[in-house]
Amino acid sequence: MSTARTTNRRILPALILTERMLMHWRLHPMVPLQAVLLPTLLLLTYYLVVSKSMVMVTGTDNLATLVPMCIVAGTMMGTLNAGFHIPGERDSGLLSRFWVMPVHRGSFLVGTTLAEVAQTVFAGFLILLVGMSLGLRFEGSWFAVIPFLLIPVLVTIVFTAIVIAVSVRTHSAPLLTLLGGVAIGLAFCTGGVAPLEHFPAWIQPIARAQPLTPVIDSMRALVEGEPVGGSLLVGLVWLIGLAAVFVPLAVRGYRRAAQSGGAG
Fold this sequence. Notes:
Elements: H1 2-27, H2 30-34, H3 37-49, H4 51-58, H5 63-83, H6 86-91, H7 94-100, H8 107-133, H9 145-167, H10 172-188, H11 204-209, H12 212-224, H13 229-260
């Protein structure tokens, strides 16, 4: 019984903070719309302007890779924009109040992550529907839709830790802007816009070695009904490695910011 009460005391505050984040997005809808609107515009622009040329060059419209890229890029943009509100909460002392309240001290981090996960699933589903309206089809089992939508969730969890680790620091806005540029650059270097073999020769090894490429390859394989194990394993190794680095940094940065009432 005491274990159940302890678990409820840890989970319930995180769920309340998740609801708080979702309510904040209702008041500022451009934050979640960043995760849907811009990637959808990119998807539609590509289809209307580039797809016919891509079919002539490569023999395929590349939707099986473009849609996963748009989903991952969109959820990263949404997570990044949500991270811009954390410095305000740090400077106002709200993080310090969360720290001294009689709730589990990790509730803020867990609640923020759960809100980002919910945004990722919602945005990914909507972008997938747009992609299917343009002609995307799952060649294998329709059950592949489930892991297809869950893989970006793993990216979101890791990227949320990176965003929190950066946003709790002093003068974090320039760093968050730089992080956004790097993240979007990595997303575009995954073969989503064009197959990697059509990239300049000097960038192909970098594009193949970076962490988002196996993630997008895994999602593409699920669409095309191909084996997904190899690329998914590489992607998981990348994500676990990044999590091992940035989750402790996020926790320590949040602790310092909360205890000091300011940046870490």
